[in-house]
Design a protein that fits this description.
Helices cover about 25% and strands about 25% of the residues. With about 425 residues, the protein is an alpha/beta fold. The structure holds ligand AOF and zinc ion.
Length: about 425
């Protein structure tokens, strides 16, 4: 009896390949492709870097593809002439039996036309296999094309009592190596890093990449994300540390004074003036649509409580990543989100219905309670404890306790 075709199995392999392009395809999507005949792998490939061959072409060129093969692609094959010719034409020539796609391409230049062309040529198309996993791979590309704004991730380092810095401004207190590498990974996968002039003036950060391609297991050179700084009044001088580091700097402002603009342009920045819609603040929704037009997919935000609060209040945050250190900074220290006065619990933010939260231990930890096998406690909420190398360490009951060593942190991710 023939074995049932396992679309999920092969699509999972295509997704694993796509992930290899995590740091190098911006502003294009991460895409993987697997070619199968008689339940055997014929070839595979992924989109390796911007401007390079698409995943399908890399797979086709690696090995001889016999007619009647099945293609598994994490994104609908393209039908347009971009930097490269349409992939569907290359596929059709090979006379495949079937093309299995995880998701349609949200790019209006494609948007179903690739699938339509395959079907018009008598090729069976199966859609939607592991679609939600495929969408998770390209949150920024999808958000930019579907909503006209980037995917916004907000990174915060807080104490156990929810503080980010002492009143004096001192905030360099989460120094664990694993947390730092994790943040570098988040920066490296992003098209842009967003912050405010206040953070640049208070902390004097570089907000650049301090890892090499080998630290992230990559073959392709890493690119520096654009640093986007909101400076409504143009208070930056151009002498701050960030200006002396690799990577572009885009400043958004309300101030149209040529003198200040010239000073920052001379320091290497690009300055854009946004109107404030009468509020006196930079309009964050306009900022986001501006960034999307400049092909920014994922935005990684590292900022203080004012910008963090405003982004949350305006519904512009898609993911919050909090590193919680085993320290207490006290109630006179600075909080993470300025949300004004909240008078009712029902008005609290930002947990929208359907939010997913995961928690990981980062750095050196000791588990102090037994973890229980998943099956023995039906109905108990579970949390996956994952090591930062990505290996699933153990699946434990949510109540199990960990001792966090001095430089460790708990990483909590909340996503809508
Ligand atoms: C990719 N890699 O494997 C696939 C893509 O500018 P181009 O010619 O590289 O085209 C980019 C568009 O092609 C992209 O926005 C997406 O719509 C489509 N598919 N892109 O970068 C791939 N399959
Ligand atoms: Zn293509």
């Amino acid at each position: 009896m023939p074995r049932p075709v396992n679309h999920e199995f092969w699509m999972a392999q295509a997704l694993r390949l796509a992930r290899k392009g995590m740091y190098s395809t911006h502003p294009n999507p991460r895409v993987g492709c697997v070619i199968v005949k008689d339940a055997k792998l014929v070839s595979q490939g992924w989109h390796e870097f911007t401007g390079g061959p698409h995943a399908e072409i890399n797979a086709i060129e690696k090995n001889q593809v016999p007619p009647g093969s099945d293609f598994y692609t994490t994104l609908e094959p393209c039908s347009h002439h971009g930097k490269t010719p349409p992939c569907v034409d290359a596929l059709i020539e090979l006379k495949p039996r079937r093309v299995v796609v995880a998701m349609q391409d949200p790019n209006p230049l494609v948007a179903g036309a690739g699938i339509g062309k395959l079907e018009a040529n008598g090729i069976k198309v199966v859609q939607g296999v592991l679609e939600s996993e495929a969408r998770l791979l390209n949150p920024g590309f999808i958000s930019r094309l579907e909503k006209g704004r980037p995917f916004v991730r907000l990174k915060m380092a807080i104490s156990l009592d929810g503080r980010t810095a002492l009143k004096s401004g001192e905030s360099r207190w989460i120094t664990g190596k694993s947390a730092r590498l994790d943040v570098q990974r988040l920066r490296a996968r992003s098209s842009a890093i967003l912050t405010s002039a206040k953070t640049v003036m208070d902390d004097n950060p570089s907000l650049n990449l301090r890892v090499s391609k080998s630290d992230l297991d990559q073959n392709v050179e890493l690119r520096h994300p654009v640093r986007v700084i909101l400076d409504a009044e143009l208070r930056l001088t151009g002498k701050e540390k960030i200006f002396g580091t690799d990577g572009e700097i885009w400043i958004y402002t309300l101030n149209s004074s040529p003198f200040e603009i010239e000073r920052l342009v001379a320091a290497g920045a690009q300055v854009s003036i946004l109107d404030d819609s009468g509020s006196g603040n930079i309009n964050l929704k306009k900022l986001m649509s501006h960034l999307a037009k400049r092909e920014i997919n994922e935005v990684h935000t590292e900022c203080g409580q004012t910008l963090a609060g405003a982004l949350v209040q305006q519904g512009l945050v898609d993911e919050i990543i909090i590193y919680m250190a085993p320290k207490l900074l006290g109630s006179r220290s600075i909080g993470a989100f300025d949300l004004g006065q909240i008078s009712h619990i029902r008005n609290t933010r930002p947990t929208h219905a359907g939010d997913q939260a995961t928690s990981q231990q980062v750095g050196s930890t000791t588990q102090t309670m037994d973890s229980h096998p998943r099956s023995s406690h039906p109905g108990v909420p579970w949390v996956k404890q994952q090591s930062l190398s990505g290996q699933l360490a153990t699946s434990t009951k949510m109540t199990s306790a960990w001792t966090l060593h001095e430089k460790a942190a708990t990483k909590v991710t909340i996503r809508r």
